[in-house]
Amino acid sequence: MDPRQERQVSRPEAGGRRASPGSVRRDFQPWNDPTAKPLVEFRNVTKRFGAVVAVDRLSLAIHQREFFALLGPSGCGKTTLMRMLAGFEQPDEGEILLDGVDITAVPPHKRPVNMMFQSYALFPHLSVGDNIAYGLKREGLPKAEIAARVEAMLGRVRLKGMEKRRPDQLSGGQRQRVALARALVKQPKLLLLDEPLGALDKKLREETQYELMDLQADLGLTFMVVTHDQDEAMTMADRMAVMDHGRLLQIAPPDLIYEAPASRFVAEFVGDINLIEGRVTAVAGDLVTLESKSAGVIELDEDAPSCRPGDAITVGLRPEKIALSHDEPGQANNKVAGEIWDIGYLGDMTMVQVMVGGDQGKLFKVSLTNRTRRIERPFAWEDKVWLSWDVEAGMVLAS
Amino acid sequence: MSTPVPRSSGTGRGLLVAAIPYLWLVAFFLAPFVIVLRIALSDAATDQPPYAPHFPGISQLGEFLGALDLENFRLLGDDPLYWQSYLSSLRIAALTTLIALAIGYPLAYAMALAPKRWQGILLVLVILPFWTSFLIRVYAWIGILRPDGLLDMALMGIGLTAEPLRLLNTDTAVLIGMVYSYLPFMVLPLFSTLQKLDGTLLEAASDLGATPLTTFLTVTLPLSIPGILAGSALVFIPAIGEFVIPDLLGGSDTLMVGKVLWNEFFSNRDWPLASAVAIVLLVVLVLPLMLLQRARGQGEGSVR
Amino acid sequence: MRRFGAFHLAALVAGFAFLYLPIVALIAYSFNASRLVTLWGGFSTHWYGALMRNQPLLDAAWLTIRVALVSATLATVLGTLAALALARYRVFVGRTLFSGMVMAPLVMPEVITGLSLLLLFVAGDVERGYWTVIIAHATFSLGFACIVVQARLAGFDRSLEEAARDLGATPMETFATVTLPLIWPAVAAAWMLAFTLSLDDLVIASFTTGPGATTLPMRLYSAIRLGVTPEINAACTIMIAAVAVAVIGASLLMKRDALAGR
User: Fold this and answer.
1) Distance from C-alpha of A216 to C-alpha of A211, rounded to nearest angstrom
2) Contact yes or no for B6 and A80 at CB 8 A
């Protein structure tokens, strides 16, 4: 078989920004509608813990029925942001609006916002049924209504017949669903989910992701998920925000975050990327040419490029956008020779590390999709190979 | 994957919750100490209450303060009875601590090694004597140590000794009673340290060629130091001020601060001197207390 | 793995023999028919009968129990509040002084606690008796109660309380429906500890009591000073039995609790 079959010569959509970006629900893009009233608004919110600034002059709008994900490394302030929304922390500056009303001073038990805790925080001394009924009892609803709503919710999360059990008699997945049911039964305007799938194993996590999406769509609720897991955020969210050091670096639908990251940090944090540093030698219309130490002359197609000849820039290149071949490609705009240093076989794909520019050069990551069941590997360690990519593949990154 | 959640610390509500116990302690703990200090600076008198001067009111505050002096403390330094009783208390407390460690360490070690299902019962067995009255436990030893008591009967019965040992009313009896009473305080922290000891560390040591003895000396023992410190402080500190044991098991020549204080107060009715004895005793306790605090800190550190 | 061998068994046997033989001997001699403690005169419950007719001793026992009930309850309430304040609020005015005052009675020689409280009562011209002993006992067992509850609070998942608030519970409701039920075993244990400390105390009670309020340990103490008699052994045996029943009962209760919770 010809290894070159593996090459990703052409991509039908040729770069994320060319495709119509947006949520999976094509017609759902309230954030692009200037007349839409956001459900949640953060206005210049700052929160400090002693000398540490957890959230730094942050503004954000989340819309009705949106599935919003907040992604960031641990300690970036995402949990604090969520806890301010739930009312457990008070902002030092700025205000938080819900449905246009300033809720900054409203205590947690009076907010129409509910939270699913990372630890689930199920009351260990109460049964599943009593856990779910807890919030309704606080509202002083009639017994019959509480019973009916708990019953309905138990069915909704597939826990019928489990209401007498104690939380420690449940599996991890069941506990997660009790925590979800307990928050959902209150019919909150906004549901906060703190690392909702973090405690589940991989298989269950994937299943539950889709369940959560269905639930959110069916109930017409607004969800805000905080997570450090990018797959989780990208799978579920209509829009996601990448956060670091208390600031929002980019708010956009997942495909835009991946294909058009606003900064080097976002590009590196979400997905794998090869970074090439160089100096611009020419700009002709959309075509930018640069001279790099690690990969020689590179050409890339940039909408309305903001760089000018002489600028030092960083170009990002996703591993799956690079093609790998033993022979020198004829047509490609960008190509560079190297030697294979490492091959990581992952089943569905193979990650190849290619050293370009000799022993002291730069390692490029290239990912190959394993589309056939062929066992013999087309590439081996120390193979001399060529990397090539389209002009649309590279992106200029702000540092 | 859970990271610690940063939380704001409430201040206003904290004061409200704390206020009740706080005020209680200020009234019944802090205020008494101020009074002890004030009486320690007064002179003994035959008045009722037996000290002078009495507080005359704000108008004569100056005069009142002028009448306070350090005479009682001077007496504590001059009269060998007092400083010798402090030294003797320290000596007996130190010996008690060492003996309790020598008995408690093997016991705690064996408990930590015992099968898991025994450990709960063994722990209860160590704590149980603590729940029975202190007085009863001391009394039990009177029956054993008195002339012709159980110990004498047993030893003479098997022919080990020919005549009664006359242990009761000696410093030895005090030591036995102290070790007996405070042993659980030594065993509990030792047990909890040894039980938490990671078994793989010992396997690693023997994997790297250490004999059981060197494993013990180079791994187990150093790692149990927080437990040793905590246990020692928990025995040493209360032992210094002990009154009941030296009073019931000790002889007339057994000198301990607790007994001296009691006698000054109840027998001699010299309240100012008793107060001075109390204050110096507190000063003596400060150093071991600081050690205990440090041992606690280390104990917490090693758990993490 | 470390092995449990003959040496360890010997250490266990020797250690527990040291702890228990004196108590066993004490109990055995309470059934001695002879007045002489050293001489075994045959089995008899004579001394238990004598005990039941010893009215001053019975009065003292009843007083001691009442003091312990009230002071343990006071100490538990105060200690629990103190533990909550210390565990929940990392900074407040005078926190260091507060935690120092809570913990000090744990290491304070009883003679000093007793002396200082007596001097306070004298200075305040308070009539000494039942209530002064209760205040003294509550003050010195407060710290023990606080430590027990604090240990439980240290392992307490704060997000449980936040979840309650999030679901619409006021701070008071949160305490009543979530916090208290979850720390309840520790509160009960704290009460038992405070109760036992009060029952057991001789020194502090001797300082702070007044005429007409003589506690059981004080009666026993003066009896012991006069000499060893099987009647004291009998009294001690009854106290040991009561404590043993209480401790075993409490541990059974807790086991049942744990089983129900599983």
Assistant:
1) 9
2) yes
Query: Cα–Cα distance between A145 and A167 in angstroms, integer?
Result: 23
pTM reported for the whole predicted model: 0.82
Q: Kindly state whether residue A182 falls inside one of the protein's structural domains.
A: no
Q: Given C160, C168, C262, which is nearest A109 (Cβ)? A: C168
Inter-chain touch B14–C85, beta carbons under 8 Å: yes
Nearest to B3 among A49, A75, A90 (CB): A75
Q: Tens digits of per-residue pLDDT, B218-249? A: 889 999 998 999 899 889 988 998 999 999 99
CB contact under 8 A, B8 and A89: yes
Could you give the CA distance from residue A176 to residue A157 in angstroms, rounded to a whole number? 10
Range of the domain at B115: 80-269
Q: Using alpha carbons only, give the angle A57, A60, A63 rounded to the nearest 5 degrees.
A: 165
- Contact between A127 and A91 (Cβ < 8 Å): no
Q: Which of residues 105-144 of B touch C (CB under 8 A)?
A: 106-107, 109-111, 113-115, 122, 124-126, 128-129, 131-137, 139-144
Domains and CATH numbers, chain C: 55-261 (1.10.3720.10)
Lookup result for tokens 């002009």: A391
CATH number at residue B222: 1.10.3720.10
Q: Are residues A21 and A102 in the same domain?
A: yes
Altogether, the residues listed in chain C come to a count of 262
Q: Considering only residues 42 to 61 of chain C, which have any Cβ-Cβ distance to chain B shorter than 8 Å?
A: none
CB–CB contacts below 8 A, A to B:
22
Q: What is the DSSP string of A5-45?
A: GG-----TT-SGGGS--S-SSTT--GGG-TTPPPSEEEEEE
Q: Is residue B302 situated within a structural domain?
A: no
pLDDT tens figures, A293-345: 888 899 988 877 788 888 899 999 999 999 999 999 887 789 999 999 999 98
Instruction: List the CATH number of the domain containing A290.
Output: 2.40.50.100
Q: Given CB atoms, is B270 within the 8 Å cutoff of chain C?
A: no
Contact C166 A169 (CB under 8 A): no
pLDDT for position A188? 93
**Chain B residues in contact with A118 (beta carbon < 8 A):** 2
Minimal-distance CA residue of chain C relative to B263? C111
- Counted domains in chain B: 1
pLDDT of residue B153: 79
Residue B53, phi then psi, degrees to nearest 5:
-80, 160
Residues in a beta bridge with A387: A324, A336
Q: Is residue B277, in this structure, part of any structural domain at all?
A: no
Is residue B20 domain-resident?
A: no
Are both A331 and A369 inside the same structural domain? yes
Convert the pLDDT of each residue in A136-183 to its tens digit: 999 999 999 999 999 999 999 999 999 999 999 999 999 999 999 999
Is B195 inside any structural domain? yes
Q: 10 Å Cβ neighbour count for A297?
A: 14
pLDDT in tens, chain C (262 residues): 456 788 888 888 988 998 898 888 888 888 887 776 666 777 888 888 888 888 888 899 999 999 999 999 999 999 999 999 888 877 677 788 888 888 888 878 889 999 999 999 998 888 999 999 999 999 999 999 999 898 888 888 889 999 999 999 998 899 999 999 999 988 998 998 899 889 889 999 999 998 888 999 999 999 888 877 788 888 888 888 887 887 777 777 766 666 554 4
